[in-house]
Write a structure and sequence with these properties.
- It is built from 5 helices and 5 strands.
- It has 165 residues and is of the alpha/beta class.
- The chain has one domain: Ribonuclease H-like superfamily/Ribonuclease H (Nucleotidyltransferase, domain 5, 2-Layer Sandwich), CATH 3.30.420.10.
- A 5-stranded mixed beta sheet has the order 3-2-1-4-5.
- Helix 3 packs across helix 5.
- The two termini are 20 Å apart.
- The C terminus is likely disordered.
Length: 165
């Protein structure tokens, strides 16, 4: 199964594509979609949509896993991230990808074994599990790969409602 993991954001959308077979992972690609600061939100959302569509067309994932929205103190930033997340979900739906959503603690639990793990621990485990020569940069990309790994570990039970329609 080929999984596209997404860490949504307006400035940076982390993405990672892994193949999961019998509990083993192989990295197919990863990176970040960056949108320029100072650009109108509508233009940034369009850029995210176009670049994510190209990634899907290139890798042909079987499923998409997206991090659920996590609000901090800045509600304005949270709204912008929610808009970008909506674009990600729309793009996945238009490409007929089953979409699973995971909270940050679920991802940390699946990758590190502890739901309150620190970011550095997640990055270290992602690098180890995927046998990468160096930690993926930026952190959003490492998070996206962690989301894909999380889905590879527990995706079957999360997607059961989608397949039973």
């Amino acid at each position: 199964m080929i999984i596209l993991g997404i860490d949504p954001g307006l400035a940076i959308v982390g993405w990672g594509v892994v193949e999961c077979s019998r509990g083993r992972f192989r990295t197919l690609g990863y990176g970040a979609i960056r949108t320029p600061a100072g650009t109108r939100t509508e233009e940034r959302l369009l850029l995210i949509y176009k670049e994510l569509s190209a990634i899907i067309a290139h890798f042909h994932p079987d499923e998409m896993a997206v991090e659920e929205l996590f609000f901090t103190n800045n509600i304005t930033t949270g709204i912008r991230v929610a808009e970008a997340r909506g674009i990600v979900l729309l793009c996945g739906e238009q490409n007929k990808l089953p979409i699973a959503e995971y909270t940050p603690p679920q991802v940390k639990q699946a990758v590190v074994g502890y739901g309150k793990a620190e970011k550095k621990q997640v990055i270290t485990m992602v690098t180890s599990i995927l046998r990468l020569a160096e930690p993926p940069k930026p952190d959003d990309t490492a998070d996206a790969l962690a989301i894909a790994i999380c889905h590879g570990h527990c995706g079957g039970s999360r997607l059961a409602p989608y397949f039973n329609k």
